[in-house]
Specification:
Layout lengths: L9 E2 H8 L3 H9 L11 E2 L1 H17 L1 H11 L13 E5 L4 E5 L5 H5 L5 E5 L1 H16 L2
Antiparallel strand pairs: 1-2, 3-4, 3-5
C-alpha cells in the first residue's frame, strides 16, 4: 500500500483560482503536454500551483504560442523545489531561448546581446502564489 505524502495538496478549483486560470484551461494544457500534472480528481502541490501560475503568466505576457514555447524551455531549468530567492527570466524573443537568472547582477550582460530580449521577474508572483497556497492548505 503506497504511503501518503505529508506534502499539502489542494483541490484543482482552488489551485486554479490562486494561479488565475480556469480549471478547463489547466486540463487543456495538461492534455497538450504543457503541464505534467494530473487531470482527474486533481489535487495539486504548492510547486504545481506555482508552475501553473508561471505558465499562465508567460501565456499572458508572451501570447499563447510564444508563452508555450518558452514554458517548455523553462520547465527543465526549474529545480524540483520552489524557485529561487530571486527568480527572473531573460527570453531572447527571436530564438525563444530562456535563461533563468537568480542573481540580478547577471541581467545587464544578458540584455546587451543586440537582440530583442524580454526580462520577466517572477519574485512577486511566486511569493503571492506560495502565500495563498499556504493559507488555503492551512485552512483545510
Amino acid at each position: 500500500m503506497p504511503l501518503e505524502s505529508d506534502e499539502p495538496l489542494i483541490p484543482e478549483n482552488l489551485a486554479c483560482e490562486i494561479a488565475g486560470l480556469a480549471p478547463s484551461k489547466r486540463r487543456d494544457w495538461v492534455k497538450r503536454g504543457l503541464l505534467n500534472q494530473p487531470t482527474r480528481r486533481a489535487k495539486l502541490s504548492e510547486l504545481q500551483v506555482v508552475h501553473l501560475a508561471i505558465a499562465r503568466e508567460l501565456h499572458d505576457l508572451l501570447g499563447p504560442r510564444d508563452g508555450g514555447i518558452v514554458w517548455l524551455e523553462l520547465q527543465p531549468l526549474l529545480a524540483p523545489q520552489l524557485p529561487f530567492a530571486h527568480f527572473d527570466m531573460v527570453v531572447d524573443l527571436g530564438y525563444r531561448e530562456v535563461t533563468v537568472v537568480t542573481d540580478p547582477n547577471e541581467i545587464p550582460a544578458l540584455v546587451r546581446s543586440g537582440r530583442p530580449v524580454r526580462v520577466i521577474s517572477f519574485d512577486e508572483l511566486v511569493s503571492r502564489v506560495s502565500g495563498a497556497f499556504k493559507r488555503v492548505a492551512a485552512s483545510k
